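User: Fold this; tokens only.

Assistant: Input:
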Amino acid sequence: MRRMKSPLVAAERFAVVRRSSPFTVRDHMSQAEHTDPINAQILAISEDKIQGFVREPFLEIANRSGVPLETVIARIRLMLDAGTIRRVRQTVVASNLAEGALVAWKVSEENLNSAFDFMFQRDPFSGHVVVRSTDQQSAGCEYRLWTTLKVPVGESMPAHCQILMHHTGCERFKLMPAKGIFALGVGHVRRKTIEPGEKSDQPATMIPVGVVNLEELEWDVLLALKREFSADEIGLNPWARRADEAGVDLETFCRVAARLNERQVIGRFSTFLEHVKPSQGGQRVTRFNALFHWAVPPGRELEAGGEVGRHHILTHCYWREGGPEFRNVNIMAVAHGTDKERIFAHKAAIDAHLEACGIPVQYTNVFWGGRSEIKPSEISPKVHRDWIAAMSPEIVTH
């Protein structure tokens, strides 16, 4: 996990300017907030609008945002150093590279925080780790800990979860793999101004989930490609160092990356905002994180997911089977915001749209996020073998 740097460290990038201008450290740090107008202009593009592999991603951000390249580079570096941006990286479509699922964990309140810590700190294959609750007693409310899990193809998600249970004291788990993806993106700054009910002209198209097998060279390029950027890597020609890391020349690296992009393995190039904790200046990107559940009649999941997923407020929308533990919900989506009633208004607009489309909702619920940490899920087969061996070889052999 990248350690947050102090305001003085972040401001060092402007040391020369400080010596020759009346601006203070506070002035410079105000430029690290997501609310700064120039930053907002950059983030509206850099959060989730750069799709696929792009050879010059920062130049693309500059061109599409209308902000000069040198300003884009300086501001992203500053926001990264200040912790406003928690990571900059090329994402991959992990659902096409590894077996994956949303996992709900039943765990006692006594073990909740230690289980959270273990999964965030000691399991590289658990990505999002969130404590969730409901506003009233309802189906599945005893499942307080929620994670995303990825394991390499051929490995067992249940076996991985059994090892986690052994270490954390969790009592039960529910695996909910995605059957289809209707929405996947961040764009928190852009979503701040979205009104309830705003949606695309057409229903969302479902992206099917299927595993792609990679060759050794493709793995080498992919693992180098997806590593987080340090501040000094933010600039022109960012892939040259990654090509060296993968042991190939730059042209080969870009050619393999383009091929991976064609195979729908590459996601978006993104600057991920710290949207859980306040910034050093006390600003919050979001305050509430809501996981929406809907149960629609079997056979109408594709239609319902398309109608839900077209709503712009949603950062994620999936077809997942919740089973009897969650009253057979099958469409799940996530929305973020700074006002809880505003999130309810967005949910109500989606509910009304489903009704207008003639799609019956047999049950619906909202699980609210509390304590939360996010890290990219590891997908390397070698790392998984080593983790299994180190964590609990006796469990695997019995």
